Amino acid sequence: MPDTTAKTTIELRILRYCPSTDTEPAFGSFQVPYSDDMSVLQALQEIKATLDGSLAFRWSCRMAVCGSCGMMINGEPKLACNTFLRDLAPGPVTVEPLQNFPIERDLVVTVGDFVKKIESIYPYVMPKVPKTVEEGTYLQTPSQMEAYASFADCINCMLCYAACPQYGANPDFIGPGAMALLQRYSSDSRDGGQQARLDQIRGEDGVWSCTAVGICSEVCPKQVDPANAVNQNKSNSALDFFLSGLRKESVT
Amino acid sequence: MSERRPYLRPQPRTWWAHPPYRAYTIRELCGVALAVYGAILLAGLVCLARGPAAFESYRAFLASPLSLALHLLLLAAALWHMVTWFRILPKTMPKLVWHGKLVPQALMTQAATLLAVGCSVALLALVVVVGAWS
Amino acid sequence: MDFFNADILVLGAGGAGLRAAIAAAQSAPDMTVALVSKVYPMRSHTVAAEGGSAGVVRADDSLDNHFNDTVEGGDWLCEQDVVDYFVGHCTREMIQLEHWGCPWSRQPDGHVNVRKFGGMKVERTWFAADRSGFHILHTLFQTSTKFPQIRRFDEYFCVDLIVDDGRVQGAVVLSPATGEFTAIRARAVVMATGGAGRVFRQNTNGGIVTGDGMALAFRHGVPLRDMEFVQYHPTCLPGTGILITEGCRGEGALLVNKDNYRYLQDYGLGPVTPEPRNKFMELGPRDRLSQAFWQEERKGRTVTTPQGEAVLLDLRHLGAAKLKERLPLICELAKSFAGVDPVTAAIPVRPAVHYTMGGILVDIDTASPLAGLYAAGECSSVGIHGANRLGSNSLAELTVFGRVAGEQAAAFAKAAPAADARSADQARAIEAKALALLQQNGDGERHAALRTEMAVSMERGCGIYRLGPEMQQTCETIAQLKQRYQHVALEDRSRVWNTDWIGAIELGYQLDVAEAMAHAALARKESRGAHQRLDGFDKRDDANYLSHSLAHYQEGAAPRITAQPVKITRSPPGQRAYGALGEQLEAARKDATHA
């Protein structure tokens, strides 16, 4: 029986695309030295340093907190830095840019659209009770923190967007990550901006593209549970719809 | 002039047929079973309105092996729909915090499942008791 | 080439850059702030800070305590007037972050909680579990989106400053996405580009921490101060260098060697108590703990792992519940990167390069000697860290001096004239130079190979303990690498997302910064804080070296090193001691002041 642990190299099949020379993406293959503690990111770095300096990918912290190195590894959205070759041996390992995003070059995808979505939902505290620094901090009990804590852990890695078929079908859908951030602020006891945010997420491009597939929460590397954020806001948005009808009637 | 030319890979048309989305697709399709069962009940009502002969043929259909098989299939689909929906139930609810700690989602699913089973058993018991009376 | 006119240009969008941009936008709402970052702001390396941020808040604490801890921790190489300003403004910045939404960990009654940290006499480290930097960065980034006058340039890489008429007038930036250049003209520039830890091999830093801003200011004649002081963080994963926060020890973690012996007691940090006390044992400062590891390794008392020698950080006695509440990230990191669950096993750790104490010379107002150029955060040397930074002082520094830099830059910009017309020619020359590197046909050497050689050499010459001949060798190696750098060849000629090209430019920055570090280290013939020599200069020498080092850039030659006096206002240099001796000395000092 062949001993896979004795394997000294592993094959990475990487989807390459360079707009200056290629009309469409195509796979390239690389053999890299294999070791048990090596991450896919380290394998990519090895390729870039010794085999092909033109390979393009984003990375920085190497410890799953900066959110740069999201990519499709064997078809699943993953952070390259905390996906290990030992779990993928004997290979080959397929590495592609994040699904559902336009490819800029090799493993680099367009991020700007996602960042615009984040910016659109008022991602900051709109104080319920304004306070000066001299007046000290707000009080917030551990229970009140729990209401938004998981949503505040989002690292903006966009894996949830790569997993979301509704985002794939409608790129204008605000998507799981931005909704997690929305819920992070809207469920913060210091915040009073709930209505302003609800006004941003009506309709098809708001929460209503979501059909509760739920894969976004499964692929999340930080247990943020964006599916919960989206679906809580479906209820909130529906309630807001009826209440706003009532408000209008009471005005007239 | 920049050489930038972003390339968008379209989402495969059959994404719903492949893992990890297949489970979701099956869950949603099982919802159709409930509609089919509703249609069967509706057909019974229509037959009832048309008179005794029509209703009798409806009853005969219900007793046929084909109908029994269909109902078993529908029951299985409905149960699966329930199980999977309860699994994502916690995703659709506000977070529950108990004494400063989040209530685990698995616990919420278990409680909901237990409640559903309890209700079903109670309903069944009611049917049996009422049936025995009449 | 595009041109963009701003009033204030902030280079770097980590904690310091974002805080500066917000402060500038608040103090001059009618001005345009261009905020340039080579990554999306939330990827900036502030994100990786774990333990927390200092700010006096407890009734049993005082600003004097924070001042004394910082100055003693820095081995009296701190600018004491700056430290006074710093400690006086930390807490209000922490409150400001709280108002902006930072999820600081709380006590049951809803008040903010603080934890113990190394070298700090009283608990004063505000923390958001063990993701403090992450939460600070995201809070600042998200808050910054409130200000329409902040015009962000996300993923724009700075290739050079525009300097004319004796003042900085902007910068030329490259967009990796398009390969096109933009000249951003501004009346004031804030440098907030972070540290340079990546010039070493084993480090806790992200790939982006390449000293860009330090090198750019340096090349334009701004001295780099105290570059020899590079902090080794004592508890990092062997091999990868991933950071295992000091917050672990703040929560009560113990450090043991292969014999399960708390070895720190052998290095002047005892006596041993079951839970470490402030400024004793595991809660000693980082330089001392890293040095103790080095000694243990020499004595053969470390644990051998496949990734090298290590000691053990034991958290088991804290229990699963507390670990999950206070140190969730550490649990996750230990499991995935070291295969160890801290609930059931000790984590193998060793020192790795963590922080650049030195940086761009600036005064208490964050102003550099180059008119219009301000600097804040790790890239700067405002003077609070001295020869060794205390954990949790750097996140506080980002906010305190980030705000100062933003406000000062805004004030400067109000008074300064607009950029002059010549800046366009200079911008085009900068673009041409960067494009020449892209087309360079060298002898085929990859810059990655040079980078590795640099990092290995820095580790050998400028590590935890240093020797004259080894430092000399490192200086020579860096000089040779700079020669070879002139001939590197790129494999990638595309303009779009050419990370080969950007990596090569970054290596140029790294080599300049590394050279400043090595030469400053060679010139300091004493041992102080993080700079420890074993070649006859193993004592602190206040008579000759109670002074900052300044490295001055010289085109085509090694940097010139000069000395700058240290500002001492109220704490004369004393013996720096921790553990029992530290306590005795403090008692004696107290008696002396009461007498």
Describe this structure in words.
The complex is a heterotrimer of chains A (252), B (134) and C (595). Chain A has 252 residues and is of the alpha+beta class. Helices cover 36% and strands 13% of the residues of chain A. In chain A, helix 3 (142-152) packs antiparallel against helix 6 (175-186) and helix 6 crosses helix 9. The mean pLDDT of chain B is 92. Chain C has 595 residues and is α/β, with parallel strands linked by helices. Chain C is built from 16 helices and 24 strands. In chain C, the strands form six sheets. A five-stranded parallel beta sheet of chain C has the order 7-3-2-11-19, covered by helices on one side. Chain C has a five-stranded mixed beta sheet with strand order 20-18-12-23-24. In chain C, strands 13, 14, 15, 16 and 17 form a five-stranded antiparallel beta sheet that branches. In chain C, strand 23 (547-554) and strand 24 (557-565) form a beta hairpin. The longest helix of chain C is centred in the last third of the chain and has 25 residues, at 499-523. The N and C termini of chain C lie far apart (70 Å). Chains in contact: A-B, A-C, B-C. Chain A binds chain B through residues 17, 19-20, 24-25, 76, 99-104, 110, 141-143, 146-147, 150, 163, 165, 168-169, 187, 211-215, 217-218, 225, 227-228, 231-232, 234-235, and chain B through 3-9, 11, 15-16, 20-21, 24, 28, 88, 90-95, 97, 99-102.
Secondary structure elements and their pairing?
The complex is a heterotrimer of chains A (252), B (134) and C (595).
Chain A lengths: L8 E8 L9 E8 L6 H12 L18 E4 L2 E4 L13 E4 L6 E3 L2 E2 L2 H9 L21 H11 L6 H5 L1 H5 L5 H12 L7 H5 L16 H5 L6 H26 L1
Parallel strand pairs in A: 1-5
Antiparallel strand pairs in A: 1-2, 3-4, 3-5, 6-7
Helix pairs in contact in A: 3-6, 6-9
Chain B lengths: L21 H29 L1 H12 L1 H24 L8 E2 L2 E2 L2 H29 L1
Antiparallel strand pairs in B: 1-2
Chain C lengths: L1 E4 L2 E4 L3 H13 L5 E5 L15 E2 L8 H11 L6 H20 L14 E2 L9 E2 L5 H13 L5 E5 L2 E8 L2 E8 L6 E5 L2 E4 L20 H8 L4 E2 L4 E7 L10 H4 L3 E3 L29 H13 L4 E3 L2 E7 L5 H7 L1 H11 L8 E10 L2 E3 L11 E3 L4 E2 L11 H23 L7 H17 L7 H15 L3 E2 L1 H18 L13 H25 L8 E2 L8 H4 L1 E8 L2 E9 L13 H16 L1
Parallel strand pairs in C: 1-10, 2-3, 2-11, 3-7, 11-19, 18-20, 21-22
Antiparallel strand pairs in C: 4-6, 5-6, 8-9, 9-10, 12-18, 12-23, 13-17, 14-16, 15-16, 16-17, 23-24
Helix pairs in contact in C: 1-4, 1-10, 2-3, 3-10, 5-14, 12-13, 12-14, 13-14
